Amino acid sequence: MTANRFATRLNSFASRPQAEWPELVGKPSMLQMAARAAKVAGLTDLDLNFPDHVDEKPVEMARKLGDIGLSINGFAMRYYSNPAFKLGAFTNPDPAVRREAIDLTKAGIDAAREAGANLMTLWLGQDGFDYAFQADYATLWQHEIDGIREVAAHDPDCLISLEYKPNEPRSYSLMPDAATTLLAIREIGLPNLGVTLDFAHVLYAEEQPAFAAALVARHSKLLGVHLNDGYAKRDDGLMVGAVHTLQTIELLRQIRRDGYAGTIYFDTFPDMTGLDPVHECEVNIATVKRMLRVVDRLEGDNRLSTAIDRQDAVASQAIIQEAMLGPEN
What we know:
It is a single chain. By secondary structure, this protein is an alpha/beta fold. It has a single domain (6-295), classed as TIM Barrel. The protein has twelve helices and ten strands. The mean pLDDT is 97.
């Protein structure tokens, strides 16, 4: 894991706009939000949404971000440009709409490559269903597989990462959990495919994050880690470690052991309640660094591996609590 590379959700930096841009009319631009993000101590990268954040030549955009000290970790597709996408992007019943979504994704991949990035994240939230008897499931699945296969084959040197989520905006998502996503990747069979784990999505898929990461490492590859937190009922986007501290530490330990070399990305929502996005992001970075120091202590403690080998939950909890909180006396 590249512990010193941290990325963040750019739209977070539209939070409390009056504090940053008193004279602003309307929404801040991509570069205005990026300039605010550049104030975050320790932040190295941004992920950009396509097409939302790309309003000029990608190479120029990358240059301007570089001038303020930020790199582009990757792009993430958003399918909002055509209202028809609400009924599905790659799975839309209209072949013309499916073609539009696929071509838009290919354009996003090209833009990412022009900007110097080689990671495209696909969150296919529009692809799913809401009612019984709404769709033929075999047809939906085939459309999804065909669409992902075509965009992944478009540029074999660009990594395509599938980010799953149980629902929202659709009642049932076609990519709701780790196992289903891994089945799709196996069926498609292209080497540039992998998985992005979003901590809050994993929680409300009723998965244990470290177990999901272990499955991904065994059957595919982990291409992205989105840290946040929540109450396992929806995509809360809370700060890292706010609710599930132990599970976050276990995930960090697991992905380190599995050789994850990517960036840690913060997919949190300070803008939902008007938090200071700069301070919020700095606290997230500091929290992860502290957690990684706990992981270091755990990895240097032979008692933990022994307890895990025995599946001794009491012993392992005692060791972890000591690593986090210090000795009892």
